Amino acid sequence: MVYNSKAFGYTVEKSARGTAGGPYYDFWWWEPGLELRKRIQQTLKDDLWYTGPVDGAWGPNTIKGLQAKFAADWGIGGDIQLYSGPIDGAPGRNLVAAVNTFAMEWARGSKGDPAEYQTLLAGAGRGENLRKYPAMVWRNVAARIAVEPKKK
């Protein structure tokens, strides 16, 4: 699979382009399918993290909504901030890792799927789940965002 960072309507930092043989090889940024993009946009909008249209076309503002949501989230145990990078609309290694962790925590929880958690656990810590299982990761992200408390 060849990664084309120009396919997105926003900048993807080099650290999320999966450069073969480089230090960030396992950190690839992949978007979910159209329906999941719309679902995530709508939930971010409902929760006041995003103010743009719900059209499934992700741009810098949708990415900023995800970055802000993850920056404010301290994980299910409340012991680690999921995202500590800039809110700049450009996904990088930190956002890939936050998406992965956010999805894994949901899959591990009482409402998640144990089989999906085991699959995601195999790639934990290296960020490769977004590259290998993008639909599974984003499905878990969408489910978790939908039930978490709204922005304060």
Folded structure, characterized:
This protein is an all-alpha fold. It has one domain (31-147). Helices cover 45% and strands 0% of the residues. The protein has helices at 34-46, 60-72, 93-108, 114-122, 129-132, 134-147. The radius of gyration is 14 Å and the shape is globular. The chain starts with 33 loop residues before the first helix and ends in a 5-residue tail after the last helix. The mean pLDDT is 79.
Q: Count the E strands.
A: 0
Distance between the termini: 41 Å
Average pLDDT rating: 79
The DSSP helix count reads: 6
What's the Cα radius of gyration? 14 Å
* Unreliable parts: none
The secondary structure category is: mainly alpha
The total domain count is 1
Largest sheet: none
Please write out the topology:
Layout (H helix, E strand, L loop, with lengths): L33 H13 L13 H13 L20 H16 L5 H9 L6 H4 L1 H14 L5
Question: What's this entry about, in short?
Answer:
With 152 residues, the chain is mainly α. The chain has helices spanning 34-46, 60-72, 93-108, 114-122, 129-132, 134-147. Helices cover 45% and strands 0% of the residues.
